[in-house]
Amino acid sequence: MNTPNPIREKDAEVTILARQTQGRRQTAAPDLHLDDSDDPIERRVYDSLRYALMSGKMLPGQMLTSRSLSEQLGVSQTPIMVALKRLEADHALQSRNRSAFYVAEPGKDEFREILDIRLTLEVMAIRRAVRNLGDEDIARLKQINRACGVEAGLPRAEMLEAVRAALAQNFRFHFEIYRHCGSTTLVELIERFWLRVGPMLHRYFGGSGAVAMPDLHEGIIAALERRDEEGAELALRYDLNAAFGAIVPQLPA
Question: Using one digit for the tens of pLDDT, what is the confidence trace for 5-39?
Fold first, then answer.
C-alpha cells in the first residue's frame, strides 16, 4: 500500500473550499503532505490526495481547486490536474468546471452497493489475516483503537479536527489488519472503495459513532486474539453494517 509516511512527510497546508447548501465558504482544510520519495511528482500528489480521502481527512462535498493545491503544495498545476483527473476516474471526485473538483457523495443505492462489495473484499481479507497476525500486531491494534473515538460534547471549532484524527486511526486500524492478508491485489481493491467511503464516515459522527467505533472494534480484536476466522468475520460485518445504518439515513435517495 503506497501511503505517505507522516514521520517523513513535509507539511504543507491546502486550501479547500466546502460546498454548502446556501453557497460556498472557506472551511478548515486538512494538512496534506508530499512524501520525499523518488516517485514522479504526479504520483506523489495523487498518493497524498488519495490517502487524505481514504483516511477521512476530506468531507463529502468539499471542493478542491487546482490553483490552491498548487500554491500550498509548491508544485505546478499540471501534476495537480493529473492527480485530480485520476481521482475523478476513480469515482472519488466529481468535476464541475475545468479546475474545480468536489469530493463525491454517493446516494443511498450506490452506498449500499459499495457496502456489499466491501463486505465481500474485507471479509476475505480479515479471514486471511487471522492466521498471520501475531501477538505484537494485536497489541498494536488495541493501541490504535484507543484513538478511534471522539469525546462527546466538543466545541464545534474542535470537533472537525477531532473527527479527522479519529477517522485516520480508524483507517489505520482496518488496514493494519488487511495488510496481513497476504495479497497486495486484495488490499489495493479494498483501497479503491475506501476512496469513496473515507469522506462518508464523517456522517457516522453525526449519530452515535463517536462512542460506538472503539466498542465495535473490540469485537474484532477479541476474535483475532482467539484466532477465530468466523468470529472475526461476524464482528467486521457488524462494524461495517453499524456504520452503514448510521450514515444511510443522511444520504440523498
Answer: 432 333 333 333 333 333 343 445 567 878 888 88
CA dist list (Å): 80 to 56, 87, 120, 168, 181: 20, 11, 33, 23, 33
CA angle 151, 48, 63 (to 5 degrees): 75
Identify the structural domains of the chain with CATH numbers, from first to last: 10-103 (1.10.10.10), 108-250 (1.20.120.530)
Rounded CA gap, 185 and 244, in Å?
25
Determine what percent of the chain is predicted with pLDDT higher than 90: 62
Nearest residue to 173 (alpha-carbon basis) of 137, 121, 225: 137
For residue 230, the tally of other CB atoms under 10 A from its CB is 10
**Which of 4-8, 23-27, 81-85, 174-178 is predicted least confidently?**
4-8
Residue-wise pLDDT for 126-170, tens only, equals 999 999 999 999 999 999 999 998 887 788 778 888 889 999 999
Secondary structure E strands in the chain:
10-13, 16-20, 23-26, 31-34, 62-65, 93-95, 100-103
In this structure, are residues 93 and 84 in contact, taking their beta carbons and an 8 Å threshold?
yes
Contact criterion met (CB below 8 Å) for 35 and 44: yes
In contact, 105 and 114? CB cutoff 8 Å? no
Give the gyration radius of the chain's Cα atoms: 18
pTM of the full structure: 0.85
